[in-house]
């Protein structure tokens, strides 16, 4: 820690240089002087005391908080990208639904109208509803998804996601079911055995009136499982994919469908195709892109990141409290130095700059090292997947993270603003400590 005499001698040298320098370099030298004093207070190797310890603790606390914040924000970014990848692997590029109600009538005229839109390659008819599944003695409520034969041509289920059996909906003319890995586990389905078929029960609509005959309240059909897919837990534990005709008979949908799923031609612009389909179909239909199909989910994720950003500000404020007390104690300890500087011509504004610069140095070193450390952890996670997802997914093994420059800039900017605000009070008090009694 520099002594009063050291500061006195260096200040004299500074003042001599200040008088000899040209007017154009005067402002630059004046700005460098507060930095010189603040750096000496913070990084002096000659003397260590309790104030230095507090300053070091302040740097460490700011570094830890900055690292934690950038990691959390990067995790939210990674989760967003992961959701897009997962949903895009199972969901269609464009989905058409009824704007009111659950189902709508589909005929060849409507299909042709959609196929005539530039950019549309495949139109898959879909019936999706809940059913009661039974295999041997095991039972489960599943979501049956009936799809037309061209569903496989959409390449929506990657071949690497088929963990057992084959990716097919018909074999030798007979219908086959693709079941999720979770459904297979719950029902203990054995694909290598044809002794037991998967029995599905669909509830009938009783619009014509109630009946006392339980057999007329549901439809039962049997189908052999042909393959098991594994994409992500929420899909694996619920879905059974069957041919469209099978689902139409099971669920009594006739010519009604719950949606139409579109695959675009290579190079087609999604926004252009979406707008064109909406113009052709009119307001009776909703044309949804990949993100709009899970609008609520993505909205929740964005809100969570927003709350995390607000929490980051609060954490940075908490971390900067150490800087506040460090500057307050430094101002009390340096009353003698402040008096000498004031006697040699340093005004209140210059004294304030010294302590504000001290706070900025602490914040900059802490935030910079914290962001560097956090970025290193994120790089290691990206390369080596140190932390596992802890869930069944064929997409990624490690927890997803994605670093954005905007997040680093956000953390650094918030810390800079908070530091300036919190350093102003100790700096103002320090500028009033100049007194002959302190010599």
UniProtKB/TrEMBL annotation:
The organism of origin for this protein: Chryseolinea lacunae
Membrane topology: Multi-pass membrane protein
Record-annotated ABC3 transporter permease C-terminal domain positions: 310-424
Pfam families: FtsX (PF02687), MacB_PCD (PF12704)
Superkingdom per UniProt: Bacteria
Main location: membrane
Keyword Transmembrane: yes
Compartment list: Cell membrane
Domain MacB-like periplasmic core: 55-279
Family statement: Belongs to the ABC-4 integral membrane protein family. LolC/E subfamily.
Transmembrane segments: 50-76, 306-333, 354-379, 399-422
UniProt name for this protein: ABC transporter permease
Keywords annotated in UniProt: Cell membrane, Membrane, Transmembrane, Transmembrane helix
């Amino acid at each position: 820690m520099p002594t009063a005499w050291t500061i006195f001698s260096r200040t004299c040298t500074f003042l001599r240089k200040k008088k000899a320098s040209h007017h154009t370099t005067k402002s630059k030298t004046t700005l460098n002087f507060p930095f010189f004093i603040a750096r000496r207070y913070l990084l002096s190797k000659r003397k260590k005391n309790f104030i230095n310890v507090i300053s070091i603790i302040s740097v460490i606390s700011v570094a830890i908080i900055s690292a934690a914040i950038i990691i959390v924000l990067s995790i939210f970014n990674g989760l967003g990208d992961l959701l897009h990848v997962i949903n895009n692997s199972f969901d269609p590029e464009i989905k058409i639904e009824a704007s009111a109600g659950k189902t709508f009538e589909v005929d060849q005229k409507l299909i042709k109208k959609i196929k005539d839109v530039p950019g549309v390659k495949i139109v898959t008819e879909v019936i999706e509803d809940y059913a009661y599944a039974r295999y041997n003695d095991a039972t489960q409520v599943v979501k049956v998804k009936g799809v037309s034969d061209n569903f496989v041509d959409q390449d929506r289920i990657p071949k690497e996601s088929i963990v057992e059996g084959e990716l097919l909906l018909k074999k030798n003319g007979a219908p086959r079911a693709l079941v999720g890995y979770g459904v297979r586990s719950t029902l203990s389905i054995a694909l290598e055995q044809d002794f037991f078929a998967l029995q599905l029960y669909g509830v009938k609509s009783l619009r014509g009136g109630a009946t006392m005959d339980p057999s007329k309240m549901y439809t039962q059909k049997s189908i052999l499982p042909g393959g098991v897919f594994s994409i992500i837990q929420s899909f694996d534990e619920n879905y059974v994919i069957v041919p469209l005709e099978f689902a139409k008979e099971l669920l009594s949908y006739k010519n009604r469908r719950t949606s139409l799923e579109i695959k675009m031609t290579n190079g087609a612009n999604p926004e252009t195709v979406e707008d064109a389909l909406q113009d052709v179909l009119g307001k009776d239909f909703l044309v949804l892109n990949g993100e709009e199909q899970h609008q609520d989910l993505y909205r929740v994720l964005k809100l969570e990141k927003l709350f995390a950003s607000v929490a980051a500000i609060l954490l940075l404020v908490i971390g900067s409290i150490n800087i506040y007390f460090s500057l307050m104690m430094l101002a009390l300890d340096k009353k003698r130095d402040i008096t000498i500087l004031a006697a040699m011509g340093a005004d209140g504004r210059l004294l304030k700059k010294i302590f504000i610069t001290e706070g900025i140095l602490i914040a900059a070193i802490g935030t910079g090292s914290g962001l560097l450390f956090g970025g290193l952890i994120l790089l290691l996670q990206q390369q080596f997947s140190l932390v596992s997802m802890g869930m069944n997914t064929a997409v990624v093994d490690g927890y997803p993270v994605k670093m954005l420059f905007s997040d680093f800039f956000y953390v650094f900017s918030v810390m800079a603003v908070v530091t300036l605000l919190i350093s102003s009070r100790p700096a103002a008090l320090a500028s009033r400590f100049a007194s002959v009694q302190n010599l």
